[in-house]
Amino acid sequence: MKNFISILLLFLLTHSLAAQTSHSINAGDYYYTPNVLTINVGDDVSWVNDGGFHNVNFDVNTITGSSFANPEAFESTPTNNVAIYTHVFTIAGTYEYDCSVGSHAANGMVGTIIVNSAPAYIANFANTDKSKFRTFNMLGHETFNSNFGPVIYRYADGTVEKKIIIIR
Known about the structure:
The chain is mainly beta. It has two domains: 21-114, Immunoglobulin-like (Sandwich), CATH 2.60.40; 118-168, no CATH class. The chain has helices spanning 2-17, 120-126; strands at 22-28, 31-33, 36-40, 44-49, 83-88, 93-98, 110-116, 132-137, 149-155, 160-165. Strands 2-1-4-5 form a four-stranded mixed sheet, with no helix packed on it. The longest helix is centred in the first third of the chain and has 16 residues, at 2-17. It is globular, with a radius of gyration of 18 Å.
């Protein structure tokens, strides 16, 4: 009986750890908020329109005209509806995207979604060899001066770490 209960608890814990999570990103006048989001494989992301005519473009960079080279490419139809688009991410990796309507991307309507292959709390135990890939401030803007204050480190393995640097 004890073995049965132990197996049942282990199954329930494992199932709850692998549960899908839904995330929302707000879109408006030249912004996606948050503009950097870390999720796990199987999670879904919904873009919510705060006002205007927008889309999400994970295919060709509107500013440069070159491919984003994302693990998968897709683009939603521009709309002024509240629900812009929902996507379930099934492939791990880093996804860059923008709004391809007018000059929205050029005015800062860009974003990044980092999809971990395993939940972050499991991935941190499995892979401790990290090389810093990019650094962001707490507003999600890339920064090159991370000597003081709150920062977000994005590593080459796709994980993200939030830090507050107190000593220079």
